[in-house]
Amino acid sequence: MGMKYLVIPFVVIGTSLIGGYFTSLGLGDWYSSLNVPPFTPPGSLIGAVWSTIYLLSTISAFILYGRVKEVKRKQWVTILFLTNAFLNAFWSYLFFASHLIGFAILDSILLGISVIALIYLIYPVSKLAAGLLIPYIGWVCFATYLNYLIWILN
After folding, report:
1. In the predicted model, is pLDDT for residue 72 greater than 80?
2. What is the rounded CA–CA span in Å between residue 27 and residue 124?
3. What's the confidence (pLDDT) of residue 4?
4. Could you give the maximum distance between any two Cα atoms of the chain, in Å?
């Protein structure tokens, strides 16, 4: 059994747990006091979407690391996956734990760029693995827009 079957889930679950911890710090009085757009999804839907994105990202990484032969591409994808994980958790820190809504928008934009870069690097190796990240970029675009509106409304 390759290390990828241990490392990839560890990174994904770690990202989810760290992001969840930071999110929990801001839920409650602070978040409920914010003005949010009427189309803001409920927390349960947001959690389900992120769980799905994490699952699809994990599958994408498994497919990719099973097929990629070029050392340079593998290194760049690894750097991007780790950067993406950091930006993902850091958004929760900026928005929920630190209440830095404007800086969270910048983080979200960088997160989106990292997903696009991953899709670009993965596509030549596996169209399926790249395609599994399409919902991720779609959600990040929506979340960035929502983040921007919350910043404007508050």
Report:
1. yes
2. 41
3. 79
4. 51
Q: Is the pLDDT of residue 13 over 80?
A: yes
**Domains of the chain, earliest start first:** 4-153 (1.20.1260.100)
Q: How confident is the model at residue 1 (pLDDT cuts 50, 70, 90)?
A: low
Question: Alpha-carbon Rg of the chain, whole angstroms?
Answer: 16
The CA angle 134-26-145, to the nearest 5 degrees, is 35
Here the contacts of 8-15 (C-beta below 8 Å, separation 24 or greater) are: 8/58, 8/61, 8/62, 8/65, 9/58, 11/81, 11/82, 11/85, 12/54, 12/57, 12/58, 12/61, 12/85, 14/85, 15/54, 15/85, 15/88, 15/89
Structure tokens at 22: 């930071």
